[in-house]
């Protein structure tokens, strides 16, 4: 039941993102807007709800499969991208570097720092 409750929360934020995109005429993915809304909710609340965390873990394990439709869609417009290969390459490189840097920054900021070595039982 806890897993279903978490999926309902994730679906609600995805639908809220879809509603915001439709009403606002935003040129963004509803999923991305929903994730931003979910992040703002977590920041306002100060913690991640346990049911949402437990529901998101199986999705993270299948992340490659969730990204696959977007990758396949790129091959449909490959002839249009071909004319702008340098801009696409630079965008992908910059986006990757920014993703890695922001992930590292968040990990350093949010994860607890253990300076003492772990104790071992002997």
Automatic annotation (TrEMBL):
Q: Which domain of life is it from?
A: Bacteria
Q: What is this protein called?
A: Murein hydrolase transporter LrgA
- Report the GO terms under cellular component: plasma membrane
Topology with respect to the bilayer: Multi-pass membrane protein
Per its UniProt record, what InterPro entries does this chain match?
A: LrgA/CidA (IPR005538)
Q: Keyword annotations for this protein?
A: Cell membrane, Membrane, Transmembrane, Transmembrane helix
Localized where? Cell membrane
Q: Does the keyword Transmembrane apply?
A: yes
Transmembrane residue ranges: 30-48, 60-78, 84-106
Which species is listed as the source? Halomonas huangheensis
Would I find Coiled coil among this entry's keywords? no
